[in-house]
Amino acid sequence: MSRSRLVGRPSTTGDDHQLNTTTLIRHAARTFGDQSVVYRDRGEWQSYAFAECYERVCRAAQALTRLGIGAGDTVGVLDWNSRRHFELYWAIPGIAAVMLQLNLRLGEEDLSYVVRHSEAEWIAVDSSLLPLAGD
Length: 135
What we know:
Elements: H1 21-31, E1 36-41, E2 44-49, H2 50-66, E3 74-78, H3 83-94, E4 98-101, H4 108-118, E5 122-125, H5 130-133
Parallel strand pairs: 3-4, 3-5
Antiparallel strand pairs: 1-2
Helix pairs in contact: 1-2, 2-3
């Protein structure tokens, strides 16, 4: 499996270490690969290792790229606090796209305004929230 590596801008601190979301999650996987990421799913505590998390983030980034999402595109996320949401949080900026966190507490009209104003062309929605997402 070949991976293309996203390279960011040079550091403004004068060193050669880029601090972006991609390097942070990759560092966590390499350094703390066996450590657990803990989350709740339908009220139950779950966990998986940072190494597996990083692999899933990479697969999510590849899937987004195959859909045609690229640098500068805005991707809305309307999801619960889930593992999928956590992985999209890293995958979307990892392909240089912009993540638009959509507030679950907003009504349909307000969400519609936010999406139109942001010019988001893509929205990831949990199936249970499709009625809120509307048209």
